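Mods, move this if it's the wrong board.
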Amino acid sequence: MDTPKAERILLVDDAESTLEVLRRNLESEGYHVRAARDVPEALNALNDHPVDLVITDIKMPKISGLELVRHIRENTHDVEVMVITGYPNVEGAVAAMKHGATDYLSKPFTDTELLEAVRRVVERLRVKRAGREALTGGGQPWGPQPWGILGESVAMRAIFAQIKRAAQTHATVLITGESGTGKELVARAIHYEGARARAPFVPVNCGAIPHELLESELFGHVKGAFSGAVTTRAGFFLAADGGTILLDELGETSPAMQVKLLRAIQEREIRMVGASKARRVDVRIIAATHQDLAAMVKRGGFREDLFFRVNVIPIQLPPLRARGDDALRLAHHFTAKYAAEYHRPAPTLSPRALDLLRGYDWPGNVRELENVIQRLVVMTEGDTIDAPDLPALMRCAPRGEPLGLERTLAEVEQDYMRRVLARVDGNKSEAARILGIDRKTLRAKLKAMEGARTP
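Not the wrong board. Structure tokens:
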């Protein structure tokens, strides 16, 4: 697999000092950076050099950054745009996103906030690029993989068909599945496959925002609405106007918030905190959760009417353990990906390692698999990843074994130690190495286990 190219970024700002700070930070991350001090210079740069991402200030002399955003979206569809705005002018950023900007960053921002925002946009670029390469035979060892979602199993081909059907409508979609199965990727695929592809896609993790702040974050607030509201601020619904909003982890919302979301979905309007009038919004709703909302409805933990509103088109993502050999295909893919990222030859996965990867239950799904492979690529010194290199749990835990939630932590630990000892034929030194403890500690634990069984 070829090394992923470094993204080409064009910076546009009339402040030389800002350009220099942005350039220095982005070049330190390996991006190829060019700079322009106004919109005409930026247009010349776009004509002369390929660009993946434009980061532009909104307020500039003569021609505003908003005009640049509009020009790029109308003439250069493959270029992503991020706008920079002063904090009191978030409405300007919302206007820019309606014209096709992908993201925005409010001043003042830290170097870390800048790099995180750029990484988000770059990740979207890479997902879209992977999808295009797969569809045009870009050298990937897979069949057609739309939208950068990798999978060849029967279960995933059914999901691809559901994505295409959902994208042809404006109906609300509910994506369910265990953590790590790729719910946000599917939501993005539905958005970018549909008629709103050029409008914003705004993901919101409802479970990561404190309950008391979620209403303001979703719907925005007016100046003076509460202590600390020193300016009027648009929320995520307004940022997504014309596009799609993903309400991730919807099951984590409070009953009071569920009432407000129900109204927003039914009436297609929102009321900013502290505002006297509601505002119309044209937003497609995609909800996602790892929880069983139908069961929550029966227990009284989720509103039945909201469940019916979001469950118009249900998409249930399969866990990785139900996707056949997709786990092995993904393991090869991530091995090549991280080897290229760390500029080293891609190690080979041995047959024994592949057998263990195939047999593992993957409770964390694709996210867990990617993290494991990334760690192995970093930590394996040779050119082969073998069974002993894998985490101890993968070498010992049989697939599909129930969790045994009725047992105490001590009982689970004891059972695990017995299984490890059985796998290594009673070799206490090897068992201690797998368990991550020294031999003396293992002997003490085994002695305590024997003592507990003695009447």
